[in-house]
Design goal:
Oligomer: single chain
Number of strands: 14
Low-confidence stretches: none
CATH superfamily: Spore Coat Polysaccharide Biosynthesis Protein SpsA, Chain A
Helix content: 10-25%
Mean pLDDT: 94
Number of domains: 1
Shape: globular
Strand content: 25-35%
CATH architecture: Alpha-Beta Complex
Order of helices and strands: EEEHEHEEHEEHEEEEHHEEHH
CATH class: Alpha Beta
Number of helices: 8
Largest sheet: 8 strands, mixed
Distance between the termini: 23 Å
Radius of gyration: 16 Å
Strand order of the largest sheet: 5-6-4-1-7-12-9-13
Length: 233
């Protein structure tokens, strides 16, 4: 795990949360007495990851003021977007501070209980271009779903709102390599979900499915549930 760099996408505006979180970026929204982002950092540090980069934009100075250059045993670096660059563009923008070949990329507004070390080990054993953490939820309508074949390769994605009911969703955690990030076009907005992933569907993407609880804090309603789902202690 010391050869894996953590990348957390923490630059979003959190527009839908403004009614309950207006004075800070979404990843710093308090859950109990802690910023939501601290739970993600704990997950990486507990797994043995020593280098973590935070990709920031909206109120970026508040994120850096909160964490500085270290969090527990990990070194923290920052990549500030000059403009909103999307999920893929933000990681591409971080290349100057990415020092490792193996990367664990996480959305900064969602949390899933999963075995981080097993997730990385599966990626290293199977060697896809990218591995996506998925989880099963009762209603996929808000998230969209992931279509997976019998060998664990991604066949495609269904847009959110197009289907409802129980299914497998993208949990916002990805194992990949610096080489893939270098192939993303620079200096413009690029989406992992809408541009990069569809180009990799042809047996270049695998899934690792977690049975653990999942939460995202994108809406006031889901944010209110976070304290019951996130780890205690």
């Amino acid at each position: 795990m010391e050869e894996v760099q953590g990348i957390i996408l923490a630059g979003g505006f959190g527009t839908r949360l403004r009614t309950v979180v207006s004075d800070r970026p979404k990843p710093l929204a308090r859950v109990g007495k802690r910023p939501f982002l601290s739970f993600l950092l704990d997950q990486l540090v507990d797994a043995g990851i020593c280098e973590i980069t935070l990709c920031t934009y909206h109120l970026a100075h508040l994120v850096e003021a909160e964490y500085g250059s270290n969090y527990r045993s990990a070194t923290i670096s920052y990549s500030v977007e000059p403009q909103p660059l999307g999920t893929a563009g933000a990681v591409r923008n971080a290349l100057p501070v990415i020092t490792m070949e193996k990367l664990l990329v996480m959305n900064g507004d969602s949390f899933c209980h999963y075995p981080v070390q097993e997730f990385v080990a599966a990626f290293q054993a199977n060697r896809p271009d990218i591995q996506i953490l998925t989880t099963r939820v009762d209603d996929i309508s808000r998230y969209g779903s992931v279509d997976v074949d019998e060998q664990g390769f991604v066949r495609g994605f269904c847009e959110k709102g197009s289907q409802s009911g129980e299914g497998i969703i993208n949990a916002g955690v990805y194992a990949t390599t610096r080489k893939l990030i270098e192939a993303i076009p620079p200096d413009r907005p690029v989406s992992l979900e809408k541009e990069v992933f569809p180009s990799l569907v042809d047996r270049r993407m695998r899934v690792f499915t977690s049975k653990g609880p999942f939460i995202d804090i994108g809406t006031p309603e889901s944010y209110a549930l976070a304290e019951a789902i996130l780890p205690r202690g």
